[in-house]
Amino acid sequence: MTSSFEFSTYPARVTDAERDRALDALKEGAAVGRLSHDTFLRRMELVLAARRPDELAALTDDLRTENRWSRMVLGGVGAVSGFTMKLRRAWQAERLPKLLLPSPDSAFPLRIGRDPANGLRLSHDTVSRVHAELRRQGGVWVLRDLGSTNGTSVNGRRVTGAAIVQDGDSVSFGRMAFRLSTN
């Protein structure tokens, strides 16, 4: 015979804090791509309906996050990687030939390409006949790709349409690269 003062053999109910931790684990799993959107939504519903801690554990066991040490190491590797990329860009920028920006008073854009009629003629097979133009608009320099085959890039990013450029930016037309300069 059992007494009414004995403890229940059923586990304790799930607390709000436990639900929040489970939901945070699901959000993190979805953010890093471990869960699809549909799986995330389904598991979220199950977390909110869970009555026992073991049900929550079953929903988040495959989403174990890295411990503190792992996060520190991965964060350090990310920081070093970012630094090396900045260092590489700075090293390359100093070695690139200068491309002098035209006088701000110039009424005409500087056309760049293989065609002899361009203001800057680049005889390279990756440069289109009429590749790009550089002009002063509203107090800023604008570099516009003119439908080139091999593209125009500013600081390593491909230009689709136009991009604002300034002194010190690295620009490339096909595989010909330069560093913009005012002097």
Automatic annotation (TrEMBL):
Keywords: Phosphoprotein. InterPro entries: Cell_Proc_Reg/RNA_Proc, DUF1707_SHOCT-like, FHA_dom, SMAD_FHA_dom_sf. It comes from the Bacteria. Residues 110-159 form the FHA domain. CDD domains: FHA. Signal peptide: none annotated. This is Peptide-binding protein. It comes from Streptomyces venezuelae.
